[in-house]
Design brief:
255 residues; Rossmann fold; single chain; seven-stranded mixed sheet
Amino acid sequence: MDDLSKQSYWNKRFLIEDSYEWFGDCLRLYPILDLYLKSSPSFILLHLGCGSSSLAEEMYNRHYCHLILNVDYSFCILDKRRSIKKNECLIDWFALDIRAMPLRSEYFDTIIEKGTLDVFFIGHEHCLWNPSEELKEKIDLILTQISQCLRSDSGRFISISFQQPHFRRPFLAKQKYQWSIQVHSISDGNESMEYFVYVMTKGEQMNEEDRLLEEGKSTKWTWINKQESLRQITTYYVDEQDDQYLLNINIEDNE
């Protein structure tokens, strides 16, 4: 099984792939993105792990921002996207590992990612009911850098994920990130295609439930307080030929 967090996997894939949308048509995203970006467009937007998605062009055409910086781990896809870009000065692509982002602090109005964080949760070694310290540290490193790059006055991090809130929220709910958390659900009526839009707003306080979650005292997300007693073994089978592999992290809550 390929490690989807490795540059080599994506370079190989992008040699033969020019365009693909992991979450389907971007149209389903518009009602939620409109809430945050339509009336108050960002001056500069950072798109993490852009891959072969056309999300950047879609966002620019809908006037969500004035400038877009797309970054990805793969040089291969960046060269392809650069070769077909239409807005020479308004959209650009750069190589960047999101685990080490040498970017300016408090610079971006909006940072968005679509499925990029999801790949770090995939693999037989990961159990979302009881995540490893290595996984926690890796995601914390990424989120810390994202928080630092956001403007302190209402900068937003928008994370689009197949991962359900009871798995993703514990990673997001940390006061040191200095943001609030809102969650929206998107579905086409088919449960297997449900995904979530997490919107973190810098400079806003987390709600009481999220503060309790960070302290391990949550009353809503009760499973996080019972990790020591959990004996469920959760594995994820990833078919390298299956373009829907990200759906494998959408695990049902059995409680």
